[in-house]
Amino acid sequence: MIALDCDCWIITDGAAGNRRQALALAEALDRRARLIDVSLRPPWKWLSPHWLAGAPSALRPKLSPPWPALVIGCGRAGAVALDALPKQSLGGPLRIQILNPRCPPQRFDRVIAPAHDALEGDNVHSLIGSLHSITPAWLAAAREQSPQWAQSPGPRTLLLIGGRRRQVGFGAAALRELMAILEHWQGRDEGSLWISLSRRTPVAWRTAIERHLPKLGQVQLWRDTGDGENPYRSWIAWADRIVVTPDSVNMLSEACATSKPVLTHAPRGVGGRLGELHRSLRDSGRLRPLRLDYQPWNYAPLQECARIADEIAATLIEARLR
To answer: Which helix (H) or strand (E) holds 178?
Structure first.
């Protein structure tokens, strides 16, 4: 869906998580989008957007007209870029910022922020977790494109490993506990275990997981592209249950969009805003703590992107009429 001939720009710092959220919104709006990665020049690199408003000279590369109808920014760099663009009343695009911009939301046309950030404003759209593209149709397409994984013995457990994060009680000790529980599951259930690491996974965690592999039976590990193409899309579509480390908003949100049981291991608690997300997911029946005993359950999948896109579409129609 990335195109130069388009009426939508996506502006981020190039981080995969930021790109994924912005692309999910553009897809839900049925927009052909052009991806633009930007970096910030000093002093905006240190002070913007909270202490210093965005400006055209803040960005590498410099953005110039003609402007598209819609620009979606995600993350801090996206917020600075949007803040530097002209308002719609001056011939600029509709500017939609994803994630808390850390400055007054009134500086943008629309802001989409996680509910756990508690950001308020007439132009703020709150959601549980993060935006993503995972829908029942997406999952069905992923299964159709990778039928070979259906041959893996069940139950099929997917383990998603993130990394360290402040106020998250998950470290080397918690990882050992998690692996011991999965070893018990594998011995009892004789299913398949798929382990997907991220770029944020510490080397010490990677080493500990690799040492544990012989105890896990039918196990496959993906560390990076050295192990081949990333099987994440296929694994999340074919998994029967998903275990997620407690540090990642994106991984938790995507897992909870599948209707599969989602479990996490945070015996030492999760604090701050991320802790609010955990409570919301637990209270809605989507997330449960990892235990030796296990029984599957059902819940309504987390599908916030479609709802937000409907709200944004109404804004676009209103802007066109004006």
So the answer is: helix 172-189
DSSP assignments along 115-154, one per residue: GGG----TTEEEESS------HHHHHHHHHH-GGGGGSPS
Pair 179, 77 in one domain: no
Angle, helix 16-28 to helix 75-84, in steps of 10 degrees: 60
Is 297 contained in some domain?
no
Evaluate if residue 160 carries a pLDDT over 80: yes
Pairing mode, strands 124-127 and 8-12 = unpaired
**CA 53/CA 32 separation, integer angstroms:** 29
Instruction: Provide the 8-state DSSP code for 107.
Output: G
Q: Verify that 109 and 172 share a domain, yes or no.
A: no
pLDDT in tens, 83-94: 999 998 888 999
Which amino acid does the sequence have at 195?
I
Closest among 230, 302, 308 to 28, alpha carbons compared = 308
pTM: 0.89
> Tokens representing 103?
């400055």
Range of the domain at 47: 8-131+305-321
